[in-house]
Specification:
Radius of gyration: 19 Å
Mean pLDDT: 82
CATH architecture: 4-Layer Sandwich
Number of helices: 9
Largest sheet: 7 strands, mixed
Helix content: 10-25%
Strand order of the largest sheet: 5-2-3-4-6-7-8
Number of strands: 13
Bound molecules: zinc ion
Structural class: alpha/beta
CATH class: Alpha Beta
Length: 330
């Protein structure tokens, strides 16, 4: 969620690009899958916008300096040597870690995590929300972290903790096999310490930092004493579970492609794409704007190629309608 940095002039160019919507597939509009898709049908136009931006980058204020990673169709994803899951994903739940208001906008955003279960009984937890002190006393915690200049907590109750969200699914923290930190901002790493013995998969670019990014006002966290699996490239964690390295929002931002038996491919953009409008806004305020644009484009391209359901990192429009725990995407 937190971002920093200056806005380059690319942004003004991007804002001028037009867009058009894409209708649901025939027969899909009334289906459950169609309803889940509805809030972001307009996404597909953004793929075109971003392709245009990439193709016209000579006119922009940056030059790509490394080849764009295009995903498994292009043979660039490798099986990770260190860690693979035994099973493949069978269901995915969106975890509700509370509501936050970002002053700029202003925007009301959901704070999300994900639990993914495999057919071998493994449970992968992606992200852990705000630190527990925000449940106890959000005002005091906000003051302590100097977060007030960025935004304010609207609702983070005891129901919005990883324990309570897992309990909704009939699970406990002890059921978690692997934790993934999509990146290390304050709204994602709050309970990173709370799973003793559970290894953490995280981008090397984040783990190499002296401390988790947390929030630029205050980097209040230490790294937990835990086994870390550092991600340096896209990888396949299991058949149908891909981890995509998408730096831009943060130095080691991760996104995820999960294939479910009924839903098909689901793209979890995490903060690589916070909300659909961020694409049109040119990812203003990202840690690295050109990188954010490039990876946003490749994620949208991948989603289009696989007809994936896209779940954004913090979409004010999508969040209220999104199916959440205790319900599953299957
Ligand atoms: Zn975030």
């Amino acid at each position: 969620m937190p971002t920093r940095g200056r806005v380059p002039r690319t942004v003004f160019y991007i804002q001028g690009l037009g867009r058009a919507g894409k209708s649901p597939k025939p027969g899909e509009a009334d289906s459950e899958r169609g309803r889940q898709r509805e809030p972001h049908n307009r996404l597909w136009c953004c793929v075109g916008c971003l392709k245009q931006i990439i193709e016209q980058s000579v006119y922009l204020d940056f030059q790509p300096d490394a080849p764009l990673h295009l995903g498994p169709e292009y043979g660039e994803i490798r099986m990770m040597d260190q860690i693979t899951l035994k099973g493949k994903p069978i269901r995915l739940a969106v975890l509700d870690y509370g509501l936050f208001e970002v002053h700029s906008g202003p925007r009301t955003i959901g704070i999300c995590g994900f639990a993914i279960q495999t057919d071998a009984g493994e449970v992968v937890l992606i992200d852990t929300g705000f630190p527990a002190k925000y449940v106890t006393d959000a005002e005091a915690a906000t003051a302590e972290d100097l977060l007030g200049s960025f935004g304010r907590v609207l609702t983070i109750t005891p129901v919005n903790t990883p324990d309570a969200q897992l309990a909704k699914l009939g699970m406990s923290k002890r059921d978690v096999t692997l934790m993934i930190q999509s990146h290390t901002h304050i709204d994602h790493v709050g309970d990173m310490n709370g799973f003793p013995g559970v290894p953490i998969l995280i981008a090397k670019a984040e783990r190499d930092l002296p401390r988790p990014l947390y929030w630029s006002g205050k980097q209040a966290m230490e790294w937990p004493d835990r086994a870390f699996y550092p991600v340096t490239q896209d990888l396949i964690l299991a058949p149908g579970f891909e981890v995509l390295l998408c730096p831009g929002h943060a130095p080691g931002q991760l996104a995820f492609m999960v294939k479910l038996p009924d839903t098909g491919w689901v793209l979890l953009t995490s903060d690589a794409i916070s909300r659909a409008s961020e694409i049109d806004e040119g990812f203003a305020g990202s840690w690295d704007v050109p990188l954010a644009i490039r990876h946003g484009a490749r994620l949208m391209q991948l989603a289009q190629e696989r007809d994936a359901l896209v779940i954004f990192g913090h979409s004010p429009q999508q969040w209220p309608t999104l199916r959440k725990a205790p319900d599953w995407f299957t």
